[in-house]
Amino acid sequence: MRRDFLACLVDTLLPGEPGAGGRATLSTGTAAGVKLDGGEVSHVDILCRLAARAGGEAAFVEASPASRAALMRGVEKEDAGAFRALVQAVLEDYYEAPPVLQALGWRGGGVQPDGNVVEEADAVTLARLDRQRTRRPFWRKLP
Amino acid sequence: MKLDPVDVAIVGAGFGGAAFAWRLSQRRPRLRILCLERGGWPDRAAMPARSSIWQRAVLHEWATSPNLRLKAARASQSADYPIDDSSSAFKPLMWNGVGGSTIAWAAHFPRLHPSDFSTKSLDGVADDWPFTYEDLEPYYDLNDAQCGVAGLGGDPAYPPKPARDMPPLALGRLGMAAARGFDALDWHWWPVDAAINSRAHAGRPGCNHCGPCLTGCVSGAKSSVDLTYWPQAIANGVELRANCVVQQVEIEGGRATGVRYRDAGSREVVQPAGTVVVAGNGIGTPRLLLASGVDSPALGANLMFHGAAYARGIFREELDGPVGPVGCAVYSHEFYETDERRGFKRGIHLQVTRENAPLLQAARLEDPWGEQAHRLLREEFRHSVPVLICNEDLPEAHNRVSLTREVEADGLPGVKIDYAVSEHTRRALDFGLDRADDMLRAAGAYRVVRVPLAPLTGWHLLGTARMGVDPATSVTDASGRTHAVKNLIIADGSVFPTVGAVNPGSTIGAVALKFADDLAGSLA
C-alpha cells in the first residue's frame, strides 16, 4: 500500500489540535510517529475497503480532509468491529508517544519506579469526614 | 503415574485456595496438604508498569478477560482457557495462576453487610446464607490481618471493625471532589477499605500511586495472596505444585479419592487424597466438577456477577488524572439497604474510583477518532471523576455455567456462560446512575457521561455452587462440603447464596478460612 495513503489515513483518524494560547498541542498522528505499514494482517481488509470506497489510494490522498472523514464514517458504519480494531491500533501508538502525553500534561515512559503524587485530604474534606463520624450507624440490624 | 496419597488436595491457588491452605496448615500442622495450580507464579519483573508501553498491556497480554489474553500476540503469564461468553451481558474476568485474580484485582476490600446474609428473611428475595455476619466476623478480622488493610474506623455504614492496619490511601483531588458532592447532598461517604499498603507494612512497601493495579503490582504494595497467604502456608509445610491442570476429581462409591492432573510436562498424574478442596472460581469450579460427574442439580446454576454501570463527571477544575490505586478513593452506602420506594429490593454500592490511562480514556470515548475526539479527551483528561455503580444481583437459575461439546487445549471440556441482565438489576442500575449523576453535579461537574452497562466488569464470579440445606437447590452445606460427595469441599465464591452489592474478595477469603476451620474441627 502507498505510504501517503496510510499516512493520510492516520492523520484523518488523529488530525491533531489547532494551536491555542501557548498550550502544547496534540500533534497529528504521523507527527507523533504513528505508522501503518499496510502489512498488518488484521487490518488489511478494512484498509482495502477504505481505498476501494475512495476510488483508489491516490483518490483518498487527494480528497479533502472532510471527504476522507465522511468516507471513513461510512466504512465504520458498515463494519464497526474491524474499523474500531484499526482505530485502537492507531490509538495505542499515539497515546504512548511521549510528545502526546506531554501535550496532555502527563509524562511518557513507565509509571514505575517513580509512581505519582496524590494529595492527602485537606482540612475542608476532613471536616466533612467529621460530619460523617457523627452520623448514627445506619446499617440494617437483623430483628 | 500414581503418587503417594496426601491428606488434603486443594485445586486452585487463588484467594480461596490460599486462605484455606494457610488456615488448615496452621490448625492441623501434621496434615499433608497439597495445592495444585494450573498456572505459574507471577513474574513481577515482567509486569508492564516499568515499560513505556504499559498502557496497551491491559488490552492484550494483561487484559482482564482471559479470552482477550488468549488472542494477544504476546504470551500471557496467566494460564487461561477460553470461555464462550457470547450469551452473557457481562464478560467474565479472572487471572489464572498462583494468586488467582488477586494478581490483577483492584484490591477494593469491603465486607458484606449483616443484612446481606438474610435477604430471604428480611426482604423475601433469594435465599439466606446458612450462617450470619456475626458467624463470619472473626474470619473477616483474621483475613484483614493476613491481607493488610488500609482504611479508617468509625464508618457508620458498618458494624464496628477492628482498627485498620494502616491509614486510608490518600483521597486525592478526585476523592475530595466526590466528598464535596456527597456532603452537599448529606449522603454517606467514607474512604474505602483497600488491601493495599498506604505505608510500608508486613515487609511490603507503601503504594506510590503508579496507577495500573490491574496489570499486576510490581512493588508488591498491593496485597495478593502469592505475597500474603502463600509464603506462610508453604512455611507451614503446604506443598504448592504450579503448572498442574487438574482434569478430574476422582470419585468412587460416593467419595472423592483424589484428583487426576496434567503436570507441566504434560504427564497424566493421579494424586490420591483423603479430602479434595476445589477453589477454581465461579466458572472454573463448576467446570471441573461437571466434568468430574458430580451430580447436583444446582451445580453451575445461579451465576451472579454484580450488575455494573458507571458515570463520569467532567469538571472545570484540574483533578488527578490516571494515578493509582484504581479501586479508590471513596464510596457511599447511602442506598445500600432496601427501600421499596425505589422500585426494587436490596441496594447499590457507589464507588468513586480513579481514572484510567490516557489511551483507555481516549478509546472509551463514544467517538474515539477525529477532531472531536481530541477536544473531548482534552476536556476529560485530568478533569473527570468516575463512579462505579454495583447492585445486588439476585440468583436466577437460567444464569449459568455449562459445558460445551468441545475439548479445550487444557484437556478439559469447553465452558459456556449464559447471563441476562434482569429487570431488577436494570432498575437498580438506573437508580444508581441517577444518584451518581446527582452527586457529580452537586460536586461541580458541568457534564456527566452515563454508561448504562459496563460489560468488562465481570470479576465477581459467584453463586454457581451455592451453600444451602436442600440438595435439590444447593450444592454444598454451610462448611462447603458438597451434598453429593461429602469429602469434596468447595472454597471460593461459587458457594455464595447471594452476593450483596460489594466486591467479594474479602468475603471469599473469610469464607475459605471458616471452611478450613470447619474441616480442621471435623478431623480432631
Structure overview:
The complex is a heterodimer of chains A (143) and B (524). Chain A contains 7 helices and no strands. Chain A is mainly α and 143 residues long. In chain A, helix 4 packs across helix 5 (80-94). Chain A is elongated. The N and C termini of chain A lie far apart (73 Å). The mean pLDDT of chain A is 93. Chain B has one domain (6-49, 58-150, 159-522): FAD/NAD(P)-binding domain (3-Layer(bba) Sandwich), CATH 3.50.50. Chain B has 12 helices and 16 strands. Chain B has helices spanning 15-27, 54-57, 66-71, 119-123, 133-147, 172-185, 229-235, 281-291, 358-363, 371-380, 423-443, 505-522; strands spanning 6-11, 33-36, 83-88, 190-191, 239-241, 245-252, 255-262, 268-278, 307-314, 330-332, 348-352, 384-391, 400-407, 413-419, 447-451, 488-490. The longest helix of chain B is centred in the C-terminal third of the chain and has 21 residues, at 423-443. Chains A and B meet through helix 5, helix 6 and helix 7 of A and helix 2, helix 6, strand 4, helix 9 and helix 10 of B.
Write the layout of secondary structure elements.
The complex is a heterodimer of chains A (143) and B (524).
Chain A (H helix, E strand, L loop, with lengths): L2 H11 L30 H11 L2 H6 L2 H14 L1 H15 L3 H6 L19 H11 L10
Helix pairs in contact in A: 2-4, 4-5
Chain B lengths: L5 E6 L3 H13 L5 E4 L17 H4 L8 H6 L11 E6 L30 H5 L9 H15 L24 H14 L4 E2 L37 H7 L3 E3 L3 E8 L2 E8 L5 E11 L2 H11 L15 E8 L15 E3 L15 E5 L5 H6 L7 H10 L3 E8 L8 E8 L5 E7 L3 H21 L3 E5 L36 E3 L14 H18 L2
Parallel strand pairs in B: 1-2, 1-8, 2-5, 3-14, 8-16
Antiparallel strand pairs in B: 4-10, 6-7, 7-8, 9-12, 9-15, 10-11, 11-12, 13-14
Helix pairs in contact in B: 1-7, 1-12, 5-12, 6-11
